Amino acid sequence: MKFSGLKMSMVGLILAGALAGCGNAKDSDSTTSGSDDSKKTEASTELTGTVTAAGSTALQPLAEEAANEIQSSNPELTVTVQGGGSGTGVNQVASGAVDIGNSDVPSADKLEDKTKADKLVDTKVAGIAFAMVVNKDVKVESLTEKQIQDIFSGKVKNWKDVGGNDEKINVINRPASSGTRATFESILMKDAKIDDSLGTAQDSNGAVEQSVNSTPGSISYLAMSYLVGDKKDALKVLKINDVEPTTENVAANKYPFWAYEYMITDGEPKDAVKGFIDFVSGEDFADTVEKMGYIPMSELK
Amino acid sequence: MNNKKNHNNQARIVNNVWTAIFYAIAILVIALLVFIAEKIITMGWGFWDTDFLFGAPSNTMAGGGIGPQLFNSFYLLVISLIVSFPLGLGAGIYLSQYAKKGRFLNFVRLCIETMASLPSIVVGLFGLLVFVTLADWGYTLVGGALVLTILNLPNLTRICEMAISSVSASVKEASLGLGATKWQTITKVLIPTAIQEIITGVILTAGRIFGEAAALIYTAGLTTPTLNAAAPLDSPVNPFNIFRPAETLAVHIWKLNSEGIVPDAREIATKSAAILIIMVFVFNIAARLIAKLLDKRFKGSVGAKPKKVKSKLIS
Amino acid sequence: MKGQKKSINYFVNEYIGKTIVTICGLLIVVATISIIAFICGKGLQSFLHGNISPWEMLTSTDWSPNDPKDKSYGALIFIVGSTLVSIGATLISTPIALGIAIFNNYISPKFGSTFVKPVLELFLGIPSVVYGFLGVTILVPFLRNQLGGVGFSLLAGIIVLSVMILPTIASISDDAVKGVPFEFLEGSYGLGSTRWQAIHRIIIPAAKNGILTAIVLGLARAFGEALAVQMVIGNTVKLPDSLYSPTSTLTGILTMDMSNTLNGTAWNDALWSLAMILLIISFLFILIIRMIGKRGMQNEQ
After folding, report:
1. Is the Cβ–Cβ distance between B92 and B197 less than 8 Å?
2. Does B223 touch chain A (CB under 8 A)?
3. Which of A73, B147, C16, C98 has its CA 20 to 30 A from that of B10?
4. Residue C84 to residues A15, C62, C247: CA-CA distances in angstroms?
């Protein structure tokens, strides 16, 4: 009796596995039909083998989507994408555990050991723009870099001092190790220092989005990939120096707050790894890149 | 005299007030659970949709499912039980039948208690260090299963030990008296008698590791490759390959809440939370039902005294 | 001949069985020791190879591992945050848990075993991410509406944790109260005392050690809880100046920064040191429980 129960549960498990597999098969069918033209161009160079990538959570959705699409046109190719954070990405590629390390920052910025950094090759695969976001009750449309520095270093504590209504500013930061925050610090804060004893810190883009959305008078910074679809309306996106965060403005060098996303390899990428990286940064995938809120490399040249 | 009567009256009033307070506390706690369960289930209303339950997640569009995550949660649970149950049973037998009182046993108990009180994030970091980095497996299902084993083993050991040692001494002596060896007594008498309590306990702990997230973030990873059951077993896309990354449902909630960029991230998170809660209920009810069933079956046939279903879990 | 074979079989069976179960027991010891060894081995790095003094880490409130000029690794804020949030949760939880223990044993055992105990088991089963999720979606907005400010706070952490540790404290107190000999109660009734008088004069003092154990275990669980607290406490790197101000915990800073920092950097090493501190504190809790247990045995003799 005991054993038949066990058997039953194993059968259930295998069924569930098959179902999970089926669900995916269905999904990959639909993506195939969606990316027919990419199939034609890729057909000449059929990719095989396995590619593993890990790292940046900001790049992860894009990389996963790219993996789905490239696998549907190259049935012999398996691409697995894992998260873990930029640090994990660089770590794992340096130790040889994965083929590609995804990172928000160049590998040299993360690695202290310079001899290791020399071996690693960083390939820019996409750009990502960031936006200053505020709660909808804030009556400010644009901030200058100086104003942003004053707010995050704690010199300005009320919205009325930067042209808004009389309301306390609630600063929301990312944790010190975040790639988004590193970009924010180097581009906008420059020499000013973020005062971490102000406001609160949220672990991730999603948590920032939620707390800006629900906290009156709050301000933070978010990757534009989190501001697509319905979410765009939940928050207020500010201009910086009166420039809107759009792909065109980034390409025209008018909007400063953006960064590259990197795929890092140990030595020059080869074979399937190269194929995958080329696909992510290439023309065929550019539409999806833009749709997902990233900036295609073709726009940045 | 009058004074004393007043005093008695007062004491009785105080007594009644406190009885009311105790009732209030009990009802408050039950109300709190009902509130929490009701909130989660209404927020995640519609979770039974099969497209959602078994569908593939989407990175870009609304309407993705949680099929792989749900499968991973169960598969991980099964793998970790395959590892941890024999170990827990063995350790339970050792502690209840073979271990001799003394310094060493004391030390073993200290270890079990320490293990039971380890913060799950510390266990996760240990997994990151040993299974992910040192063993060079990367984020894998088996790494996650081993970490869950560490989290679960102290409880399993305790359950097995208590179940076996609660079998009455007379049953054990009767078996030994009939010429059975110690090992025969353990396998043929003690374990069958204790099995009901053991199974109940195992299912209850299973319900708890089903929802573990903190430790798995660092070991089983945050992603699931696009699964394909037809792929060879050593391929990372075969659902049964234990050396592939496997995001579980609880981790999925955490990820959606933190990095989800699909438009309906919130909805998927609430529905997943509803499913997790319902699974907890199912595990609890299953434990009770199975206990009742086994109780009927074993009572009489083995002649053990009927025992109350009881599980003492710490941490 | 046959008899001899049987006895060999007997011997082999007994011997193998005993060996296997002993190995299982030993494995627990080995696993525990290796966890401690690995975590401490990593955690001690920053004191051995880095220039961080353990004293500075334990007493300084200056946590700025990313400051380009003046890095410092004071963890006092996180230690204080973890301590306050656990103690606060235990203060709320203990009276309720005690009430439940007494209710289940003396007021209405029938109602207790059919409703209250199963409910506690369900509480224990609710995953910590779900508690955190509820905290963010219900509790934080509620606090913000009632008290103003951002809502993410020490108080929110305390409330979430107090629900999470309630089943732990309640079930162990329940056993402790149950362990009080029935004669104690009868004796008290015999002297003319009411039920309440018997409970608070006789039962609770008699179950004191078991209740203390329950409290310490609850504290230990609260101290080690990671995701739920991190989601609601605000993660501000600052000592809390009131119950309603945001702060950080050891587990919170670990979940946020561990995956984004690189192996071998001073920052990453410092985080491992925090993990070691967490481990040591949870071990201290176990030692305290053992001391309580020993005292209980001495009292009985």
Report:
1. no
2. yes
3. C98
4. 48, 19, 10
In the chain, the amino acid numbered B305 is K
DSSP reduced 3-state for A153:
coil
The number of CA neighbours under 13 Å toward the Cβ of B149 is 27
Burial class (CB in 10 A: 0-12, 13-18, 19+), B101: exposed
Element (H or E) spanning A122, and its range?
strand A120-134
Cα distances (angstroms) measured from residue C255 to each of B121, B215, C293: 8, 10, 34
Contact of A105 with A86, CB cutoff 8 Å: yes
What residues are paired with A240 via a beta bridge?
A143, A243
Cβ of B312 and C119 within 8 Å?
no
- CB of B215 closer than 8 Å to CB of B229: no
CB contact under 8 A, A201 and C65: no
Q: Smallest Cα–Cα separation from A76: which of B228, C135, C288?
A: B228
Q: Which two tokens stand for residue C265?
A: 């950097």
Sign, Cα dihedral of A262, A268, A273, A276: positive
Report the greatest alpha carbon distance in chain C.
Answer: 88
DSSP class per residue in B229-250: TTS-TTSTTSTT-TTS----HH
- The answer to whether the Cβ–Cβ distance between A203 and C150 falls below 8 Å is no
Rounded CA-CA distance A127/A294 in Å is 6
Q: Which residues contact C94 (CB under 8 A, 6 or more apart)?
A: C169, C215, C218
Nearest-neighbour CA in chain C from A40: distance (Å): 39
Task: Give the tens place of pLDDT for each residue, A58-94.
Answer: 888 888 889 888 888 888 888 888 777 788 788 888 8
Question: What ipTM was reported for this prediction?
Answer: 0.86
Instruction: For residue range A126-166, list pLDDT tens digits in order.
Output: 999 999 999 988 988 899 989 999 999 989 989 999 888 89
Check if A83 contacts B (Cβ < 8 Å).
yes
Query: Residue ranges per domain, chain B?
Result: 44-302
Q: Which residue of B has its CA nearest to C12?
A: B183
Please name the amino acid found at residue A85: G
CB contact under 8 A, C275 and B211: no
Q: Give me the mean pLDDT over the B20-39 stretch.
A: 92
CATH number, span B44-302: 1.10.3720.10
CB A202 within 8 A of CB C284: no
| Three-class DSSP category at C301 | coil
| C258: its two tokens | 């561990």
Tokens representing B43 are 């927020």
pLDDT in tens, C282-295: 999 999 988 888 88
Interface test with C, best of B40, B100, B183, B312 (most C CBs within 10 A): B183
The answer to whether B79 and B142 have CB atoms below 8 angstroms apart is: yes
- Find chains touching chain B: ≥3 CB pairs under 8 Å: A, C
- Give the residues across from A173 on adjacent strands: A201
